[in-house]
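TL;DR need structure tokens for one chain.
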Amino acid sequence: MGLHRYVAYNAPITAGTWTSVSTGTSVKTMLQLATPSSRMLQVVSWGFSISGAQAGTVSLCAENAGDTVTAHVASGLMPMDGNLPASLLTLGTTATGYTASAQASPTTVRMFDSQLIAGTAGDNELNYSYQFLPDEQPVVNISSWLKIKASFSVAVNMQCYINWAE
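>> reply
TL;DR here they are.
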């Protein structure tokens, strides 16, 4: 295919681990990837883990507005092959990052996947990972934002990731 593959998490990776982030108690973008005006991306897989069985929803979507986030640094967009060049995604506090402190008001939303967590003891959706088949991999247009959004009535800790090709 010739595309370069990358992965990003909802926190910086240090010493091979990452810290869980609280979802809060309203809609919150946990991870956001911003495409530049010259590059689309194709979603390969995504997933999340949450710390407890609380009722909520976790979704993967593309929107036409960026939330205010903690900006990822270039090394946070990790190539799946160490020989690949750095990702060309846009970095910054309203671009590629994690743990939103303010939500934008998009006028266009494209939903790619969503998981309802029932919030009952023994719930099997505390860990979720999905790899899109090659012919169903969503394409995120130029100048758009790909997001993992969480909505819980009781805060839980979450780790999440997106694997993409550009």
